[in-house]
Amino acid sequence: MSASTHLNSSATDGPPSPHTNGSGPLHGLRVLDAGFVYAAPIAAMLLGDYGADVIKIEHPQGDPARTHGWQKEGHGLWWKVIARNKRTVTLNFSSAEGRVLLCALLREADVFVENFRPGVLEAWGLGPEVMHSINPRLIILRVTGFGQQGPYAQRRAFGTLAEAMSGFAHQTGQETGPPTLPPFGLADGVAGITGALAITLALYHRDARGGKGQVIDLSLLEPLLGILGPGPTVFDQLGIAPGRHGNRSPNNSPRNAYQCNDDRWVAISASSTSIARRVLQLVGHPQIAEEPWFTHAGERAKRADLLDQLVGDWIAARSFETVVAAFTDAGAAIAPIYDIGQLMTDPHILHRQSIITCEDEDLGPIRMQNIFFRMSQTPGAVHFTGRRLGQDNHDVFTEAGVDGATLARLSREGTI
Prior knowledge:
Radius of gyration: 26 Å
Pfam family, one: CoA_transf_3
Number of helices: 18
Structural class: alpha/beta
Oligomer: single chain
Shape: elongated
Family: Belongs to the CoA-transferase III family.
Largest sheet: 6 strands, parallel
Helix content: 25-40%
Protein name: Acyl-CoA transferase
Keywords: Plasmid, Transferase
Mean pLDDT: 93
Strand content: 5-15%
Organism: Rhodococcus opacus (Nocardia opaca)
């Protein structure tokens, strides 16, 4: 460590920032989010939603997520969501003095989140062994495309590659069409949620079981593979590789997207026989529900052409409002296929406050997704939206014991 960076240890007891979270089950925990773009930052976002003091550490050039996607007045809109409940600091810890500052932050941290390629932190002298020598209680989440070890560990990877390799794209799309990738960061989101779960498990082991810090090796590939159903088991036991079925299910029918006569669309799922029977009665074909094969979901799936024709014709002759009302009254499972604007005006979404309005310091009132789940005793909350680059440098580094003159010099030199 460079002796030129002056750290005053007594400053760590200073007053908390007004932007730290004051409630939630993770209140009192400090998370250093050194990830960028999506998966690792989503994991940290979830911890911040439930009370952790999350410090977003960016290179002085900024996280690329700040400029990804739609923007307004130069402010990235996805950034406002993914960086909510995070204080923001800039730090180039590939430099010697940057590493000194990072080590100072690590001493007071509970969790460190990163998604550098395997070996990068080690090359900077910041591998897990070094971090644990500084803070043995530290939980380290390492997010990569393919994991820390293996033939593909050093490959550059984004969620798209995981969506391709996992089998997701192979199973998605029309039966006669090409494999289809999702239009959003599905693998990143699944990995982010998984990472937050892994961190809380590690914290429980540390704090409730008398354990110590540990390293979590999380790939983008494995969580997505894990939620894709029994594909490996089916292939192992039956030699079948699940393929594309459009909006149908290979396991039951009717299950599809159907168009109404006013060009609105609805989705129907009849996984249980009782729901399937109600659908057929509603569309005027109760005799089909009395066929011996109808009680078996797999047999219904084999007759999807017939069932889709009967259900689809009935829906195609009616308006969206009529179809939804009829299915709802009959106790048959149906949901509108919304675009985001339609979703945001739905009465259930409004009642549940699934979309909330937050006050943003740059854009004023903005709307975004609410926290993912509700807890009766220790609820989470969105306290503030994504902040400006390095906005909390003074507060955070002062808390870590850095004096004002040193901060000014480090800023001039591009370390922060």
